Amino acid sequence: MLIDTHGRIATDLRVSLTDRCNLRCTYCMPEEGLRWLPKPELLTDDEIVRMVSIAVTELGVTEVRFTGGEPLLRPGLVGIVERCAALEPRPRISLTTNGIGLARTAEALRTAGLDRVNVSLDTLNPEIFRTLTRRDRHHDVLAGLTAAHDAGLTPVKVNTVLMRGVNDDEAADLLAWALLHDFELRFIEQMPLDAQHGWQRGDMVTAAEILEKLSARFTLTPEASSVRGSAPAERWLVDGGPARVGVIASVTRPFCRTCDRTRLTADGQVRDCLFAREESDLRAVLRSGASDRQIADRWRTAMWGKKPGSGLDDPSFLQPQRPMSAIGG
Ligand code: SAM
Ligand code: SF4
User: Fold this and answer.
1) Considering every ligand atom, which ligand is closest to the CA of 74?
2) Which of 25, 144, 164, 319 is most deeply packed, by most CB within 10 A?
3) Does ligand 1 lie within 6 Å of residue 190's CB atom?
4) Residues 122-127: contacts with CB within 8 Å, 24+ apart?
């Protein structure tokens, strides 16, 4: 298994399928985009499936989430999901997406074996969406959400980042909308992972503020099983339940002590943390003709030295070289 010196065991694998994206969310990417990884550096579909297979069969990974960049931009996505769903033991498979194009692919993804989907949506207002993502695609995201729900990719979760003076007045409206459509809403505190390095702690809308805004309209009760475990979201029952809302307070209430994540970038680097400043080049090992066992050993070594925490509260904290879109959020 993937254990580290602090006794944490990683069973949840995040795989970035591409660093590219068709949106330019201000908290993630600059308007002009980024210098994308050259194709030969990207893992091929076969290489991705092999890495997932090693993770599942040799290293005890039970959850696989595909992300990016925008994973729906990866032409082979449906095939990758299908092959991963055929692995023994079968991992649970999910996708984090901006939802653009999901209306076309939700059904095929479900048939291929995708279990669940998280769709990112920060606003109910198409104009604010355009300012925030620098693209006029609000309608496509809503269509994607409906299609995901219709295809049974449930519970459909919606990821929302609130920004002060932009969409922070929408917290309660977003929750009312999510309840109406049977989506599970999760707010994510903005993290210092933007390519522009513009994040300021003081600008961030904190979990405490979000809860205060929601409590003005809804009664929130901590979920009975509110032992957070390794799940990053703390969850509350809304107006007595069964509907819930989550808050991922990566900055103000970090969950590093119970972290169970391991990450694979689109160019085959293993990262033990979103905020890690070091990576292990498994692509080189893979392409050198190594056996599954050898690759698994290198992966174990990569995870063993995982730091106890993100270091966000340390005055010497330095943002990782790669932005969120290239790590795989
Ligand atoms: N493109 C897909 C999407 O937007 O869902 C997947 C990749 S995106 C990097 C994954 C998640 O990270 C999204 O929910 C997005 O809102 C979130 N995200 C991106 N930059 C962030 C930041 N600086 N702080 C917090 N969350 C961020
Ligand atoms: Fe693209 Fe997702 Fe980053 Fe937005 S958050 S720019 S959709 S990768």
Assistant:
1) 1
2) 144
3) yes
4) 122/25, 122/160, 122/161, 122/162, 122/163, 122/167, 123/167, 123/170, 123/174, 124/170, 124/173, 124/174, 124/177, 125/167, 125/170
